[in-house]
Amino acid sequence: xxxEEDIKAYEIKxxxxxxxxxxxxxxxxxxxxxxxxxxxxxxxxxxRAVGQLINGVKVLAETKFNEQKEVLENTSEEGEKLDxxxxxxxxxxxxxxxxxxxxxxxxxxxxxxGFSVSEGPEIEDDWHNFxxxxxxxxxxxxxMQDTFFIEKGENEMALRTHTSSVQVRVMENGEAPIRTISPxxxxxxxxxxxxxxxxxxxxxxxxxxxxxxxxxxxxTLLYFAKEMFGEKAQIRLRxxxxxxxxxxxxxxxxxTICSGKGCNVCKYTGWLEILGCGMVDPNVLEASNIDPKxxxxxxxxxxxxxxxxLKYRVNDLRxxxxxxxxxLKQFTSAL
Length: 335
Ligand code: PHE
What we know:
Order of helices and strands: HHHHHEEHEEHEEHEEEHEHH
Shape: rod-shaped
Largest sheet: 7 strands, mixed
Family: Belongs to the class-II aminoacyl-tRNA synthetase family. Phe-tRNA synthetase alpha subunit type 1 subfamily.
Number of helices: 11
Protein name: Phenylalanine--tRNA ligase alpha subunit
Radius of gyration: 38 Å
Keywords: Aminoacyl-tRNA synthetase, ATP-binding, Cytoplasm, Ligase, Magnesium, Metal-binding, Nucleotide-binding, Protein biosynthesis
Strand content: 15-25%
Distance between the termini: 70 Å
Subunit structure: Tetramer of two alpha and two beta subunits.
InterPro entries: aa-tRNA-synth_II, aa-tRNA-synth_II/BPL/LPL, Phe-tRNA-synth_IIc_asu, Phe-tRNA_ligase_II_N, Phe_tRNA_ligase_alpha1_bac, Phenylalanyl-tRNA_Synthase, tRNA-bd_arm
Bound molecules: phenylalanine
Strand order of the largest sheet: 1-5-6-10-9-8-7
């Protein structure tokens, strides 16, 4: 029939022509219905055959409609055929920065032995960065050479040169006993090279309680070194001086890269300095309203870059802040 020809020839190229097709052949006033209406005029003995014919036309229209609908649904607007079996564009997975990785690991290690995390401002006043930490007025560390000073209104402020400033804030605001670590960025006015930078990262540790001893400090640091670098790690304490601790020490950890034979990370010595520490000076406790007759404590400050250097064999401090993706990408698997 003519309708059959029309259905076959009908060009469905978009949603609009599909809808027109539907209205014409399948809608409530469709052309095939007209044929069924004509069935009344057909002699009885032919009704069955003619009915089947018309029904065939109806099925043809329905089939074409469903087929074309599916074709349209699988075709993008530009008309190209979509291929759902094609592999997707790869999603680039980012990586965490080695400094962030090491910082979280340090926090976890100290969390396990009851240390909380505290933070302080990077722009600091003289009191918290120096005076309360027992720096005499003429101490060379206050010198312009090390400290970035900042004019801020009436007050002269500085970029903190160490996280020891947070010790003071924690002691001022809290009450003994105190067991906390303070991770953060610190600044020093130094020429940038492979081994020095104008900013780097530290984690301060502070433990104040009754009868805290130097042995507690040593044991805590040994625990830390073993957790961080493995059971074989050893530490070595060298006498040192800090205005805010007495006695004071610098701590080296055994080089896990060359295991004693010497490499350029440990400068062929088998040891790498990672932190300064000591028993909190009574003057410092007093400055923060903690009674040194009742309480004692230890403090330490470790360099995150140093620990990352040993953990990941990074030999140039500048790599940490250059954002070179070839460097950063190497830590993807460290997630
Ligand atoms: N603040 C010292 C530094 O930056 C490290 C330190 C912290 C030493 C705590 C002793 C106690 O070098």
